[in-house]
Write a structure and sequence with these properties.
The protein is α+β, with helices and mostly antiparallel strands. About 60% of the residues lie in helices and about 10% in strands. The chain has a 4-stranded antiparallel sheet, covered by helices on one side.
Length: about 500
Amino acid sequence: MKTSGRILIACLLPLTLLAACTVGPDYVRPTAPIPDAYKELDTWRVAEPKDNVTRGSWWEIFDNPELNTLEEKVNISNQNIAMAEAQYRQSRALVRAARAAFFPTATAGASFTRSRTPVSAGATLRTTGTTSEYVLTGDASWEPDIWGKVRRTVEASRASAQASAADLESVRLIAHATVAQDYFQLRTLDAEKQLLDATVIDYQKSLQLTKNRYASGVASKEDILLAETLLKTTQAQAIDIGVQRSQLEHAIAVLIGEPASVFSISPTQLTPECLFNLLCIQGDHKIVPPAVPVGVPSELLERRPDIAAAERLVAAANAQIGIAEAAYYPNLMLTASGGFQGSQLSNWISWPNRFWAVGASILETIFDAGLRRAQTEQARAAYEATVASYRQTVLTGFQEVEDNLAALRILEEEARVQDEAVRAAQQSVKVLTNQYRAGTASYLDVIVVQTAALNNERTAMTILGQRMNAAVLLIKAIGGGWDASALPSAEDLLINDEKRGQTDLH
């Protein structure tokens, strides 16, 4: 290489290093409205469980082995999680692709050409033979990142990949929460079905009692018809539960990645003392929804993956502003090429047959009819939209926490009152039935209290199902034990390891 080429490169490289800067605004996390405390905790305090009770496998807080088994299958076979995980690996690859622009691009090639020159048409006729040409070339080009366009592109790609990682955790959290919701609703239906079946047996006894009294002449035909109507109505209600239970079973099958045709959950058989509620809400051994560690409002920004994803998208949009502004500045391109060229294979690669070239070019757009200004304005508007979306996500997060805190508090009080209603209704059935046997009460009075008792017992089950659902939703609202520290770092995103991409978020 001649001295002039060395001088050119020696002058250009320090110039690019000195001139290099990053245009566009540096990212600052946007502010969001954060309350000092949760309003719905003012009049209701849950017991403080262990700090790590909802970390990782948060569903274990419900102490249900069958639910634990279903939740573990979600991590393995849920197709929504598999899709989100693949999208996360795709975003990791985009980070590495963006980072490749920091480095020169080099190409190499070899060619062989054999040709024949035609007879010359000049004054002196001559004939040439065929010739061969062997070429071995190498080319390199590099566009220094003087204005930070590549750095902003990598920054945007990195933030988008982190948002994708948070999206994966959101999908995972939603899937786990939905399984828990469907499971507890299914078990509530099992308890309600068993209650109705037991009530059918009682109503059959009442019908037989009425028939016996009719045969003795102390009851009317109307009493028999009323008893049969109540019995058949209750049987129809018990059968109708099967529709919703089947649908919940099928929904759970899809969530754990199994065909609905081959998946089933066996109905539970509750003990007599637990018959009137899914988790023995009556009696001395009351089991209620577990205590959930809510924390303070400021922690919610770090614990919810959807909030983390929204914040990372803000960072990506901020970097896009710098990319748009970099278009206002000139681009510098450094190129170099060299190789060997000869007509004979024997001396093709030899020092006399070498060739080389180095160069530099600067390109600046002097007129684009407002294209760059429009692109910059677009980037700034997109940034402001992501900020608004982030703040809306934060507000929604606080709303969901408050909603489910209120639900748990109110439903707890409702369950206490409903327990009293159930006990009173059951006592009324005993009293009115004895009076009917003694002939001091009509059968219509008995039906009224029996219907009231059944409705109250079913309401008690529904309330407990709502409490379990609210507990699951509260855990989901506070992030299920996830933390923003689990987001992949810049170094993690550059690791070209598919297996690592599949496991580093579990």
